[in-house]
Amino acid sequence: MSGIYQLTVGVLFVLSVALGQRSGDVYILFTDSYAKQIWKLDFNNSNYSNIVIENHENPIAIDYDPVMNKIYWTDVGRPDIRTCGFNGENLSLVRKLKPGSVPDGLTLDPVSRLIFYTDTGNDVIALIDMADFYHKTIINTNLDEPRGIALDRTQRMMYWTDWGAEAKIERATYLGESRTTLVSTGLIWPNGITLDTEGQKIYWCDAKTNVIEVLDFDGNNRRQIAHRDSFHPFDIFLFEQVLYTTDWTSKRIYQVYLDERNMTSLNGSHFKRLNGIHVFRAGAFQNDTNTCTTNKGGCEQICIPTSGGRQCACRDGYTLITNGLNCTGQADVFALFTDSLAKQIWKLDVINSIYSNIVIENHENPIAIDYDPVMNKIYWTDVGRPDIRKCGFNGEDLSLVRKLKPGSVPDGLTLDPVSRLIFYTDMGNDVIALMDMDDYYHKTIINTNLDQPRGIALDRTQRMMYWTDWGEKPKIETATYLGESRTTLVSTGLIWPNGITLDTQGKKIYWCDAKIHKIEAMDYDGRNRRQIAHGSSFHPFDIFLFEQVLYTTDWGSRRIFRVYLDGRNETSWGGRHFKRLNGIHVFRAGAFQNDTNACTTNKGDCEQICIPTSGGRQCTCRDGYTLTTNELNCTVHNACSWCYPGQCGGELLSADCVCHPGFTGHHCQTITTKPAMHVLVQMTNSDEQRFEIDSTDNQASFWTNVNNPTSVHYNLSAQYTAQSSGTLPDKPAYIEDFHVIELSRFIY
Fold first, then answer.
1. Alpha helices (runs of H) in 465-597, residue ranges in sequence order
2. What is the pTM of this model?
């Protein structure tokens, strides 16, 4: 079942059937997902007519709105929901769905002006109001493969099938409340579902067991209605005590009379793949009304009918205000996350569940990510290049922040946008470093007693950083922005601590451990440690706290999970079209307050780097520089901070360099070993005699008795080989590159 849609294409048919003495034409709407057409059959005249709709990909579910004489259908190939007039006129888009959506089920409440649909790609059931197309997610938990959906419009209840690993049939109110499982045994691939609201019966078809079954609304009196060998029913609809079902195997529509229980074919086998079906009698719709029919019952966005009248509701991302009618708007919430195997950065509109790929060239392995609301910039690390880069919110203005030396593994990144600082971890070199965001001055903060530092988070009000280390002795530590007052908070019960995030108001630390499959929390002082969430196949990489909800990326399911702090799993995104989700950052657009501190303007007059403090600010310098006595400016440090090729003979800021063999000087910058040279000199005198000197003995000078040469041609090549091991030591972070070059050559 999971591979159904990989090759399907789409068609929508309308078939009209005259049934005996019934008044008015009866139409059957159904889709053929291999033919990419819409048909209407006037059964009285046995005439098919093609309703021409452009750009079908894979139409599946279908329904009809008798109030406006409109057809609605889903297309899992595009994916979207569209509508048109009964003859194909006035084609319009209802809702464009995000990539990966599979809207297999659709049904309407034309009186209440509501659309309901299932999405097996994202495991959700949602509704849309038919006037303004406001969208509201109803159910997004404990769904696996939701498909068919049907409504009891008088009781405001919805029923649906789920053909996932634990197949079931469920029921809930229009808003997803009072959820009940009605059937959970004897099912394999339950597909279509339909209701007899007067008789209070549920009918469904199962494509794996090849049957049509029924049970009462209360879950009792289950029985088989029909069975057929090689029967693969997709959808089913009850109309005037006759069941209509589409069959993939025979490519036919079958009628099943409830009193006779025999199956009769309505059409030949010229169709290709029949899917959704809906039956109605033209002109038979009664102009029923409820409190939601007119002007949405006074509701601003969505009106839900109730036994006592109506209940107003709001679209995703909005909440109902105290008057019970209007909705308060919220700024857009975005989640930024990386997919390292796909080499992509994604932006998720959390409210509308819409993904967009931020197209950046030359990704190798993007990992950590953060957002600067001051300049509307995205920052991320790439362990494949390795480097740190940034771009505008939509991918524009790509630029390099810092090229890291080979072997660097910058798994963690976080920003202090007020102080204009970047912090990152590098488990390839076992360091934590910072950079200022204006001039990219780089300063190593911690380079001792680190093994595999990964996640990093900041308490910007207290100027403290917290990080995870999943090395041989895993731990969670904290220190000031400059690495002082370093403290180990947790060193037991950890194996692979990855992401870390903070509740700065509640003074709590949250982290995820990929080996023990947990999210845990504790207070700032290391006390009150407790488990927040756990999953047996859960492999979380990063975690971020936003408005009292935890967002975490999971390698195992390739999804983003959203978890309330009390442990409730609210929803997930992603899955099939992602490969390996890593860093994540969530923020509300436009919500950033223009906070300031002593470092915000002109770096607090610091020449290089400004660090905020409780009393103001502290200036500091990039690697290789030290602060002068005025405590504002920086000067080159004339000791081991510039020592290559070599190493410090003692403390970093006071010792002399111990140079690599073959080098000398205050910074080991002078080569004492002669390079291997090959010199070829050709001269011609006035008598046009030619003389040649060819030397490979490393002579620095050559003499000749040729007087007054009229031309001289020479070629010099040199090769330097380091003494001792024959190779130079690895460059420290502050050395961008190293070359041995020829300074000069001359003839006199």
1. none
2. 0.53
| pLDDT the model gives residue 10 | 35
Q: Which has the higher per-residue pLDDT, 611 or 738?
A: 611
Contact 581, 573 (CB under 8 A): no
Instruction: Report pLDDT for 748.
Output: 53
Comparing 154-163, 354-363, 630-639, the range with the smallest average pLDDT is: 630-639
CATH numbers and ranges of domains, the chain: 4-284 (2.120.10.30), 295-330 (2.10.25.10), 333-588 (2.120.10.30), 602-636 (2.10.25.10)
One DSSP character per residue, 285-317 reads ------TTTTGGGG-SSEEEEETTEEEEE--TT
Residue 597 near residue 419, CB atoms below 8 Å: yes
Token pair in block for residue 661:
């063999």
* DSSP type of residue 674: P
Mean confidence (pLDDT) of the chain = 85
Q: Using an 8 Å Cβ cutoff, are 592 and 374 in contact?
A: yes
Q: Max alpha carbon distance in the chain (Å)?
A: 127
704 vs 207 pLDDT, higher one: 207
Residue 163's alpha-carbon distances to 170, 324, 327, 630, 747, in angstroms, are 11, 37, 36, 72, 87
Sheet holding 366-372, edge to edge: 366-372, 377-382, 387-392, 399-403
SS3 letters across 380-428? EEECCCCEEEEEECCCCCCEEEEECCCCCCCCEEEEECCCCEEEEEECC
Quick one: average pLDDT of 365-375?
A: 94
Joined tokens for residue 703: 């003499």
> Nearest CA to 553 among 290, 255, 338?
338
Nearest CA to 221 out of 249, 254, 199 is that of 199
Residue 479 has pLDDT above 90, yes or no: yes
